[in-house]
Write a structure and sequence with these properties.
- The chain has 315 residues and is α+β, with helices and mostly antiparallel strands.
- It has one domain.
- The termini are far apart.
- A hairpin with a 3-residue loop joins strand 8 and strand 9.
- Strands 1-2-7-4 form a four-stranded antiparallel beta sheet, sandwiched between helices.
Length: 315
Amino acid sequence: MSTFSQKNTQIVKQTAKQLGFDYCGIAKAEFLADDAKKLENWLKKGMHGKMQYMENYFDLRTDPRKLFPGAKSVITLLKNYFPAQQQNIDAPKIARYAYGQDYHEVIKQQLNTFLNHLTSYIGHVAGRGFVDSAPVLERAWAQKSGLGWIGKNGNLIHPKAGSFYFIATLITDLTLEYDNPLAKDYCGTCTRCIDACPTQAILPNKTINGSQCIAYFTIELKDLLIPDEQKGKFKNWMFGCDICQEVCPWNRFSKPTNEPAFTPIPEILELSTKEWLQLNEESFKKIFKHSPLKRSKFKGIQRNLKFILHDEAIN
């Protein structure tokens, strides 16, 4: 690898640190053959449920050079979102990633800044940044660039920091030095996440039945009703689910995020079940204007709330 590539790689890693990203890994932009096969089989089995968008742009998902012509390197960035504070015990549970501002808005802006910095340090750099909003296999690229392994729960697990991280991807035309994947994964014989999943969405061989995940039912599913067969299984989770991360031994290394934008919205920590029930749509839109909760909309949150209250009544 040339001195030029080494210098640019140092600039990339330093810029990541300056902008508050916790970890940075780099991989060569190429076709993800193994992941393409896995994705194809997963889709054929219908494990994406009603997430039809997962079927779109298959070629772009598996080859970044088709998503961004001229791509040479895939830069993967991890940003911690683990909160310092927890919710009121008497509250419908919300996944920790949604405590603060919408990560799409926050990290997308930071990726634009990242590209601008690279251009100022290196010269013109062509690239596109993505954060869970385009056909990119983020976890595959994170694993490929040495940032961790894919756990049995489907999450990327960093050996020193666990899994409470957002994954952002920057595809560029820079030729850089590439990081090596970890030699193995470190889940070993542990099955805590599989055993703890109340809807049995976590299958053997690191396969996740997305259509059975609590996060799917409470966020992705847009139907007026959640299927009756799921009653009694949600463990008071109203938006998303962290059970498989809570039981993962590697998350004992989790530390609170330093990102101000991910400071919990006070209402998420403080509202009781009764106060959630009394919340009207106007207040919901005002309070959660910049929150991931807006993805489910007021009607979706109300649907989820009624569903988990039924759970409590029968347990």
